[in-house]
C-alpha cells in the first residue's frame, strides 16, 4: 500500500460555486466528469494517476450532503500554505483554524468551504 487514501470525494450542493471556490484557492483546474445518467455532477482535482498519486473530486448528487462533521480531508496547500489559505475568505469560505505549525510535519489549517464542509490544508511551508 503506497498511501492510506486512494481517492476522496467532497460533497457539494452547488457544483459551479464549489468548483470556482476550489479552483480559486488551490490555483488548479477541476475537470468535469459529469454522469447525467446518475444525476451526478463530478469534478476531479488534478492528480498523478500514473504514479498512483492520491486523487479526489467534488461531487453533487441528491444522496450526498455537505457537512462539517465527520472525516476531514487534507488538501495539498502547496509550497506555502498561506497562499491558498489567504484566498479562502475572498472565495466565499471561512477559516476555522489558522495556519498551525506541526513541527517536522509542516503546517495545517482548516476551513469551511462554500458548501458547509470542513476541509483542511497541509504544507511543509
The SS-based structural class is alpha/beta
Which band does the percent of strand residues land in? 25-35%
Number of strands: 8
Average of per-residue pLDDT values = 94
* CATH fold topology: 2,3-Dihydroxybiphenyl 1,2-Dioxygenase, domain 1
In the sheet with the most strands, the strands line up as: 1-4-3-2
CATH homolog superfamily = 2,3-Dihydroxybiphenyl 1,2-Dioxygenase, domain 1
Report the principal-axis shape.
globular
Number of helices: 2
Percent range of helical residues: 10-25%
CATH class: Alpha Beta
CATH architecture: Roll
Number of domains: 1
Through-space gap between termini: 27 Å
Runs in which pLDDT lies below 50 for 5 or more consecutive residues are: none
Query: Which H/E pattern describes the elements?
Result: EHEEEEHEEE
**What Rg do the Cα atoms give?**
14 Å
